[in-house]
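Appendix B, Record 12. Input sequence as logged:
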Amino acid sequence: MAPQKAVLAETGEEVEVDKVELNTILAVKAGETIPIDGIVVNGQCEVDEKTLTGESFPVSKQTDSTVWAGTINLNAEDCVVAKMAKLVEAAQNSKSQTQRFIDRCAQYYTPAVIIISAAIALLPLAFQVHDKSRWFRLALVVLVSACPIEPSPDNVVDFQNFPGEGIHGKIDGRAIYIGNKRIAARAGCKTGNARNLKGYWLTNLLDHIT
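Logged structural output:
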């Protein structure tokens, strides 16, 4: 709410807002509410306009800028609110120590996952282990779980949600089903025991998205 009083810049006299004449220069100190719509004729400041526009951050004002009654002159140099806003912005633009550590590890993580997945798939061949397809599917599980495909929601069409089962959609014309056994049956996958179903379903999914 705009104040009922205004301060004349020339004399420092406080007058009623409704008595302020056109082209009168007013003084608004830091932390005070601007009493009337006007134009900045001297100085710079930060103005809190969230009561009018919903803007959470202060708006910079300089000579010839328009200011509105009911907004607050923060004066960025002196106002605690403005300083807090700048600190929040700086924190959002900077990375924490943990974030930087994760970024350094990421350059080694993906090659390590690929090597581990390849080892799981190839070592059983070297040692003539039975059920080689099972080990190959396990290698795919490790690879897909540790390095997932970047999602692109804009490419999904015909999306459907089946409560208690899962979801279905098409990406580049290929049908994708994600969910439990019931969604697998809906997709026409083979049944059988849970272990075989999981392997078949994963392979089927990889065939669709690669």
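The chain is about 40% helix and 20% strand.
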